[in-house]
Amino acid sequence: MKLFEIRPAFVRAYFVGAMLCTVGGIAAAAVFAEPAWVVLAVLIVGIATLVMIGRSLSNQIMGRLRPALLRDLSSLLSLHRMVEPRGAVPPAGGWAAEPDTLLELVSSTQRSGEAPTIVECGSGTSTIWVALALSARGNGRVIALEHDASFRAETLASLERLGVASWADVRHAPLEKRRIGTAEAAEWYDASTITDLDGIDVLFVDGPPSGATGRRGFAFDELAHRVRPGGVVILDDTARPFESADLARWLSGPFRIERRLGRSTMLRRDPVSVHGPGVATA
């Protein structure tokens, strides 16, 4: 998000003000034969400039942040009304999923059919909210793949504290160097941790860490054909180059964009058996 910019009108106003103060200072120095007037004029220009810049930047930043803050607050309030957690939930945003993404994840979970299967690539705040939603509806399960053992332990501790550990299966899924088809070799989750996954109602792809050591695109090769017709896929961070390329691969199969969610994109699998590369007919 571009928080501020130096606007042409502001620059013009500054130079006009600076010129008037400087000319006035020089004129006063000539009339009163006192160089201190020039120094005073320069100080006035400096102070006025700082005040003007501060006010301009403050107004611009707040103008850009306010809609996002209001949207996040609204999403968080909706989440708490929907599942009513019995304790503090780890914060959203930052490395964790943003509130609007979490809200859609929970909403999709609640709209799913009987005993839905929710799968996450990565674990954390999203796992906790989904487990809370499953507990509220009384059926279903969430399976989260987590390569970091210490982070997995933190997620499990939060689930226990909130009384929803029985609704979540947070699997330690170490990263391993893999090559699928002609794709460049990269790290993805241990294949043995996903052998039993099928009939996925909601898939949330927020891991492994993107970049040179991890490639979230492998989720398409390994999990796309396991998503039910009509199922939901939410891809996080799709504005970034790697994830943007991954999104294009999903769209080459039987998936269509349903909503843009801030930095995430929500897809839905076609309810019919039309399929693209790498996706088997359900």
From TrEMBL:
Record key words, sorted: Membrane, Methyltransferase, Transferase, Transmembrane, Transmembrane helix
GO biological process terms, semicolon-separated: methylation
Transmembrane segments: 12-31, 37-57
Keyword Magnesium among UniProt keywords: no
Record GO terms (molecular function): methyltransferase activity
Pfam families xrefs: Methyltransf_24
Listed InterPro entries: SAM-dependent_MTases_sf
Name this protein carries in UniProt: Class I SAM-dependent methyltransferase
Organism this protein belongs to: Agromyces archimandritae
